[in-house]
Amino acid sequence: MARRALILVEGHRSIGLLYVKAAQRLGLHPITLSTDPVQYDYLAAESLAAIRVDTDDFDALIRECARLRATYHIAGITGFSGLDESIYATVGKLCRHFDLPGPDPVSIERCCDKFTQRQFLAAAGIPMPAYRLAEDATEVDSSAMEIGLPVIVKPAVGSGSCGVRLCRNVDELAEHTAYLLAGERTRESSPRILVEEFAQGPQYSADTMGNEVIAVGAADFDCPPNFVVRGSIFPALLTDCEHKRIAAVSLSCLSALGLGWGPANIEFRWTERGPVVIEVNPRLPGWTTPRLIQLAYGIDPIGEHLKLVIGEEWDLRRRHWQTAAARFLVPEGDGVLDWIDGDTRAATIPGVAEVKLYVEPKTRIVRKGDFRDTMGHVIAASPSRAETEAILQRAVDLIGWSITPFHPLANRSNLRFPHLLATRAGWQLTGNRGAGDQSTER
């Protein structure tokens, strides 16, 4: 009997290995197809099967999958989004071609473009910020004036907060518009910029599987006018009524966009109008979210997703209930990382589930104002919210670093010692009602 294989289109730096491990637990042989497999360190570290193929070439992917089918029984195909959702739409097309379970590619493509997504949600009467589509500086200016400053300005296609900025005045608006248009000119398509009302209030996210809401968490962001994640927590501190309202709007989003298969992630701001939808991501979020959901509820969203991918029955029953939270390590400035340590000591604190550093000494730190600015994270879990917050703070206080600024005359404010910066490093898990990210693919 041929060995059962799981095809993974591209990889993911934060959850790629988790998918590989989950596949192996299900008795599958994971094979990664990637334009550049070297970029995913875990493939070489774990001696995993990887094949170099242009993942933007759909015919090439079909040929490679057909070739593999001569040796393996392909049990399922899935993959990961990069800076947009296009690869995941390709996954849906491959599943259709090989008659395997998978997402509807039309529905995924509907979400890839934030303006198109907004149109479908608006037609369904789903509460959202006011928005406009612009293709040049004049249209951006007029859109911002119609909506009223401050506004969120971001690419119509993208994720991970890349290119997303809060523009509070005309100078910031002009500066960021010029930045986005300069980047867009390198592409074949016309530049497309989304200008949105700044929805103020705490940020929440609902994670769904099929047509079921499995978790609602809260997130906190800092570094305005840019959007850099500071932390997240599950479950969010909500009343039963607030939770039901978020769940109801989440299911309405899935229906409006045709996303009734597999995982999805819906981001909200709780405003004076209640929950308004910031973005719908038609896949499982990356980074720490799957781990937090598992620690909080005993549900492994990655494992259950793979069961769906290979046509097996999933189980979304909650096995326990506790508070799980993550704190991210964010540098205060640009420069060369001299040292970073304390992670080993932090990991020994009872209740700490994971401490991970993304950088090593001598790394050049150049902040981009998005998810790429984080240097590591700490995850903790316990039966109570207060205890989880305290555990996280103790762990983060043990981690320090020093960054030498690129400019020799720059102020050395990039030296981070826990006892000096505990106040600045502290993160309010109850949610930040100030500026925050409206596009947080992780």
Secondary structure layout plus pairing:
Layout: E1 4-9, H1 16-25, E2 29-34, H2 41-45, E3 49-52, H3 58-69, E4 73-79, H4 86-97, H5 105-112, H6 114-123, E5 131-134, H7 137-147, E6 151-155, E7 165-167, H8 170-184, E8 193-197, E9 203-209, E10 212-222, E11 228-234, H9 240-257, E12 263-271, E13 274-281, H10 289-297, H11 301-309, E14 323-329, E15 335-341, H12 343-347, E16 352-357, E17 364-365, E18 376-382, H13 385-397, E19 400-404, E20 415-416, H14 418-425
Parallel strand pairs: 1-2, 1-4, 2-3
Antiparallel strand pairs: 5-8, 6-7, 6-8, 9-10, 9-12, 10-11, 11-14, 12-13, 14-18, 15-17, 15-19, 16-18, 19-20
Helix pairs in contact: 4-5, 7-8
Q: Which class of secondary structure composition applies to the elements?
A: alpha+beta
Largest sheet strand order: 13-12-9-10-11-14-18-16
Number of helices: 14
Shape: globular
Kindly provide the radius of gyration, computed on alpha-carbon positions and rounded to a whole number of angstroms: 22 Å
- Helix content bin: 25-40%
Q: If you average the pLDDT, what whole number results?
A: 90
Oligomer: single chain
How many β-strands, per DSSP? 20
Largest sheet: 8 strands, antiparallel
Strand residues, percent: 25-35%
Report how far the terminal alpha carbons are from each other. 39 Å
Uncertain stretches? 417-442
Describe the structure.
The chain is of the alpha+beta class. Helices cover 33% and strands 27% of the residues. It has helices at residues 16-25, 41-45, 58-69, 86-97, 105-112, 114-123, 137-147, 170-184, 240-257, 289-297, 301-309, 343-347, 385-397, 418-425, and strands at residues 4-9, 29-34, 49-52, 73-79, 131-134, 151-155, 165-167, 193-197, 203-209, 212-222, 228-234, 263-271, 274-281, 323-329, 335-341, 352-357, 364-365, 376-382, 400-404, 415-416. The strands form four sheets. Strands 13-12-9-10-11-14-18-16 form an eight-stranded antiparallel beta sheet, with helices on both faces. Strands 3-2-1-4 form a four-stranded parallel beta sheet. Mean pLDDT is 90; it is low at 417-442.
